[in-house]
Amino acid sequence: MPTGLADELGYAHSPGNPLHRSVRWAAGTRAGGWVFSRTLRHLDDAVGRLSGGRRSAPGLLAGLAVLDVTTTGRRSGRRRTSHLIATPYAGGLALLGTNFGQAATPAWALNLEADPRATVTYRGRSREVLARAATQAEVAEVFALAGRFYPGYAHYRRRVGDTRRIRVFVLEPA
């Protein structure tokens, strides 16, 4: 019987093969973060269209599960869907607003701060969730867990340093 949001959706990351692990490493570099921050969304959209929504670019390239998170735009009020890598956390899911270590906070994170209601979808299963800011202790736990499947998060965190606050959200069923 499912015990939380991650289990209910069947959301988990694979350990990855050697190619996956090398892509994960490359994406964590400054150059990789820059390239992926500008291209991954478009590549992921193309892979999704070509596979009928059954595959994602991060899944193919890095063996990472992609969660579609639909938020409400803080300015437009329109629904916006982002393809994100979530961290299984305490039976649920957490999101890290690293933006590949770039200077700007990702729009989806700002949207969740303005309106914490969202929809998450994974492999055709959707759930309504509420996002809440993680506590300091939870931030540390989430980053530690995320670093086990994707070492790039630690690189992003060091690169961002004190230039901006990386938002971390814990998703709870609505």
Tell me the major beta sheet.
7 strands, antiparallel
Helix amount: 40-55%
The radius of gyration computed from the alpha-carbon positions, rounded to a whole number of angstroms, is 15 Å
In DSSP terms, counting alpha (H) and pi (I) runs of 4 or more, how many helices?
7
Residue stretches low in confidence (pLDDT < 50, at least 5 long) are none
Distance between the termini: 19 Å
Q: Report the strand count.
A: 7
Backbone structural class? alpha+beta
Question: Residue-averaged pLDDT, rounded?
Answer: 91
Family: Belongs to the F420H(2)-dependent quinone reductase family.
Protein name: Deazaflavin-dependent oxidoreductase, nitroreductase family
Pfam families: F420H2_quin_red
Organism: Nocardioides flavus
How would you explain this protein's 3D organization?
- Belongs to the F420H(2)-dependent quinone reductase family.
- It catalyses: oxidized coenzyme F420-(gamma-L-Glu)(n) + a quinol + H(+) = reduced coenzyme F420-(gamma-L-Glu)(n) + a quinone.
- This is Deazaflavin-dependent oxidoreductase, nitroreductase family.
- Pfam families: F420H2_quin_red (PF04075).
- The protein has 174 residues and is of the alpha+beta class.
- It is built from seven helices and seven strands.
- The chain has a seven-stranded antiparallel sheet with strand order 2-1-5-6-7-4-3, sandwiched between helices.
- β5 and β6 form a beta hairpin.
- The longest helix is centred in the first third of the chain and has 21 residues.
- The relative contact order is 0.20.
- The model has no long low-confidence stretch (mean pLDDT 91).
